[in-house]
């Protein structure tokens, strides 16, 4: 089945619009938080929802597995691979909802790498005692690719304590859901859940896009050498 050119163009425009729109929303939220709140400051919207400003060097939800530079380079490579896949996918038979989900994943990844790439260059450091400000390019708190990712959404849905008899953590505070995350993280998480719920069959296109095409070889039945 061939894709209609108008349909392909329309899906491409839709993907670009989703990616650009989500990145803009993500950056607006982060810049507002970073330039108006100090590290650790929180706004209690409800008992179970807070805007809590923190920064991290790691992956989504504050996880840390790699050196900062290694992580930033890995993100750039991942974004390039995702972008290549999305371009190829749009030219193939696909479900439009899957394009939306993959665009959300790409937007989320790009939103966080933007922090690492530029925030250290254009902002001075945020501290528990001071609010960050824009500075002249290159005179910020960190070099290229070493900027910290801004997180702010905190949902302590259940705040209680482990029972005294509980091994290792008896009597300690227990919070569900404790990670602090940002809009870009949410885009990635929501789209991944949607993919596994509704578009698992579409994941087969990954193999189709990245499968190495066999090289054509010329064969002849004539054993004679020219």
Describe the structure.
- It is a single chain.
- With 226 residues, the chain is of the alpha+beta class.
- 46% of the residues lie in helices and 13% in strands.
- The protein contains 5 helices and 6 strands.
- A 4-stranded antiparallel β-sheet has the order 1-2-3-6. A two-stranded antiparallel sheet has the order 4-5.
- Strand 1 and strand 2 form a beta hairpin.
Give a summary of the structure in a few sentences.
With 226 residues, the protein is α+β, with helices and mostly antiparallel strands. The chain has helices at residues 5-34, 68-90, 96-122, 183-198, 204-210, and strands spanning 42-46, 49-56, 149-154, 158-161, 173-176, 180-181.
Using brief descriptors, characterize the structure shown:
two-stranded antiparallel ribbon, 5 helices, 226 residues, single chain, 46% helix, 4-stranded antiparallel β-sheet, 6 strands, alpha+beta
For the largest beta-sheet, the strand count, sense and barrel status come to: 4 strands, antiparallel
Strand order of the largest sheet: 1-2-3-6
* Mean model confidence by pLDDT: 87
Query: What is the helix tally?
Result: 5
Low-confidence runs (pLDDT<50, min 5 residues)?
216-226
Structural class: alpha+beta
Strands, count:
6
Rg over alpha carbons: 23 Å
Oligomer: single chain
Share of β-strand residues: 5-15%
> What is the percent of helical residues?
40-55%
Order of helices and strands: HEEHHEEEEHH
- So what's the overall shape? globular
Task: State the distance separating the first and last CA atoms.
Answer: 43 Å
């Amino acid at each position: 089945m061939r894709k209609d050119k108008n349909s392909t163009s329309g899906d491409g425009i839709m993907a670009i619009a989703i990616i650009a729109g989500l990145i803009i929303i993500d950056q607006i939220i982060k810049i507002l938080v970073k330039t108006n709140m100090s590290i650790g400051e929180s706004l209690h919207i409800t008992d179970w929802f807070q805007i809590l400003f923190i920064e991290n060097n790691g992956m989504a939800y504050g996880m840390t597995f790699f050196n900062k530079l290694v992580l930033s380079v890995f993100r750039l490579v991942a974004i390039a691979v995702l972008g290549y896949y999305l371009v190829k996918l749009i030219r193939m038979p696909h479900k439009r909802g899957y394009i939306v989900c993959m665009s959300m994943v790409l937007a989320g990844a790009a939103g966080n790498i933007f922090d690492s790439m530029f925030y250290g260059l254009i902002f001075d450091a945020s501290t528990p005692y001071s609010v960050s400000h824009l500075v002249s390019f290159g005179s910020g708190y960190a070099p290229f690719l070493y900027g910290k990712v801004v997180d702010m959404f905190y949902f302590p849905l259940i705040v209680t304590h482990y029972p005294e008899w509980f091994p290792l953590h008896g009597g300690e505070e227990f919070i569900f859901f404790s990670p602090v995350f940002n809009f870009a993280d949410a885009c990635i998480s929501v789209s991944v859940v949607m993919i596994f719920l509704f578009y698992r069959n579409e994941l087969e296109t990954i193999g189709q896009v990245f499968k190495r095409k066999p090289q054509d070889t010329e064969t002849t039945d004539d054993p004679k050498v020219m």
